[in-house]
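About this split. The held-out portion is used to measure sequence recovery: a designer receives only the structure tokens and must propose an amino acid at every position. Recovery is the fraction of positions where the proposal matches the reference. Here is one held-out target exactly as it appears in the evaluation file.
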């Protein structure tokens, strides 16, 4: 069994704290995705695990052994980066075999292993080509093959797909998923793309400003965000988040904002009067009367048919529009008034600090 532990891991660059006391255990075979906005410390964390960056303090252990002092090549890790930097004057087969030559693996064994991994990532027809003759997606597969061939126990991938177009990204994302499934090795993957994180991860580690703000399965992170930041980061279209106040009304509370006022369901235990935010995911907003929850009467200001779904926009003049997603191509008209519903179980509340109110 191989597992990686980060203990109070910290990295300072001068006065900047890039990674702030990270604690995390990554289990053998897990697909972990570090996700967060640019500058949150994802790459620095990965580079410390890889051995390219020394921690300011804290420990990295692999299989119970502290590896802080070990050279990258002695850590049993394979890295794939966004810029794959293939050797331009070597053909694809030689590029893939590079790590094996460094390890002085016999030539016939090299040929056999190159054949094996190129079948795995489906690039056998490229082996005699030069890198300059390969597309972006093909180059990324070659970079993957070059890492796979050295058979590391753990793979570190830093935004490996970000230079590709959307369709190729989706294709290679599925490929990464399949490879992880076949190899049963540990994958640690860095991305700023919430969709990539949601689709690939066994467990997502959400980072902000050098800290872990939430860890969990994709569905936990999506369905049970601990803060405004996490709620806002995951989901496309994003969660509707409306700034306002919680005001005592009768035996409960009302949410009041410049956009609308609605009574809040009784199932929240920790509301206190004051400023806060109400959130509801666009797919949970109902159009037409509902049995549970409040509703408001609103004009549809914009209709965006996406094929599979249709987006309805309300209050487009607010800081952020209020959006509902309805299934299919609906014959909905602009400038028509409808009942916009907030089912009780679909409402998220956040206090003035952005922490979730339950
Ligand atoms: P991105 O998605 O943009 O790559 P990231 O989450 O991977 O962002 P890091 O690259 O880890 O973020 O950077 C974290 C912080 O540390 C940033 O503020 C960055 O400017 C800073 N930083 C990273 N490397 C160095 C360095 N070598 N010297 C000084 N500051 C650095």
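Reference sequence for scoring:
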């Amino acid at each position: 069994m191989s597992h990686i532990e980060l203990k109070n891991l910290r990295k300072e660059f001068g006065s900047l704290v890039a990674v702030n006391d990270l604690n995390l255990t990554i289990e053998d075979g897990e697909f972990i995705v570090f996700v967060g906005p640019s500058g949150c410390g994802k790459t620095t964390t990965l580079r410390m695990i890889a051995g390219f960056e020394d921690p300011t303090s804290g420990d990295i252990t692999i299989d119970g052994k502290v590896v802080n002092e070990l050279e990258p090549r002695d850590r049993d890790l394979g890295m794939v980066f966004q810029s794959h930097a293939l050797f331009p004057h070597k053909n694809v087969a030689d590029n893939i075999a590079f790590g094996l030559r460094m390890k002085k693996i016999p030539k016939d064994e090299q040929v056999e292993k190159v054949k094996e991994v190129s079948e795995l990532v489906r690039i056998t027809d490229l082996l005699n080509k030069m890198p300059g003759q390969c597309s972006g997606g093909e180059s990324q597969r070659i970079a993957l093959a070059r890492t796979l061939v050295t058979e590391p126990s753990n793979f570190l991938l830093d935004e490996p797909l970000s230079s590709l177009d959307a369709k190729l990204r989706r294709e290679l994302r599925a490929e990464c998923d399949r490879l992880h499934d076949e190899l049963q090795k540990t994958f640690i993957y860095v991305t700023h793309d919430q969709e990539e994180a949601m689709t690939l991860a066994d467990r997502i580690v959400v980072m902000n400003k050098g800290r872990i703000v939430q860890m969990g399965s994709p569905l936990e992170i999506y369905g049970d965000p601990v803060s405004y930041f996490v709620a806002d980061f995951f989901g496309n279209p994003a969660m509707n988040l409306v700034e306002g106040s919680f005001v005592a009304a009768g035996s409960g509370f009302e949410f009041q904002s410049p956009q609308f006022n609605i009574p809040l369901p009784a199932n929240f235990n920790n509301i206190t009067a004051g400023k806060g935010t109400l959130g509801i995911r666009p797919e949970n907003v109902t159009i037409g009367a509902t049995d549970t929850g409040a509703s408001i009467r609103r004009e549809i200001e914009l209709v965006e048919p996406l094929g599979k779904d249709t987006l309805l926009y309300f209050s487009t003049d607010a800081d952020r529009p209020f959006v509902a997603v309805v299934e299919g191509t609906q014959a909905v008209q602009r400038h028509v008034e409808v009942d916009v519903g907030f089912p009780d179980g679909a409402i998220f509340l956040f206090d003035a600090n952005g922490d979730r109110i339950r």
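Annotator remark: Residues 166-183 form the longest helix (18 residues).
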